[in-house]
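Explain this fold:

***
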Amino acid sequence: MNQPTHIRDEPQLYAAVRRLDHIMTRITDIFAFAGMTALIGAIAVVVADIVWRRIGGQSFIGAVDLTQFCVMAAASWAIPHAFSTGAHVTVDLFGKRIFRRFFYIIDALIPLTGAALMAFLFYLSWGRAMEQLAYGDVSQNLAIPMILFWVFLLSGLALSTLVCFVKFLKFVFTGETI
């Protein structure tokens, strides 16, 4: 007797969702590494500025622009990694053992709510970024196009949305939490 198609395909579906989760984790690892490299760059700019002030008695022109640029990359690209690895702040309540079914539902809704929130923030940020692009705004000292700052934010929000949605799928199809 043949098994129904949905029963035969379940293990493949579980494997596909787990594989997709693994791929998203690797992508966020790369983005987080690039973001932390940018943060090291920001630190180097600040240190160079301090040394230049002591030695030359002047400020390093563009230090603020470069620091903001690097910090924007670091923050925007670290957030998806936190969603992917479960490194964000959580609170374990003592009642979690007593009300397991309730918290099971909450655990399912958290990544879905995160995906919806990140998608909404992406939508709002996209509109503002397009305004910046249309106006041709640039940074104060080095004239870095402001749209480049928005690229970091938009890519981080888009990746966060995808990661949260994959975490939701993983929970639905495998029952595994972050």
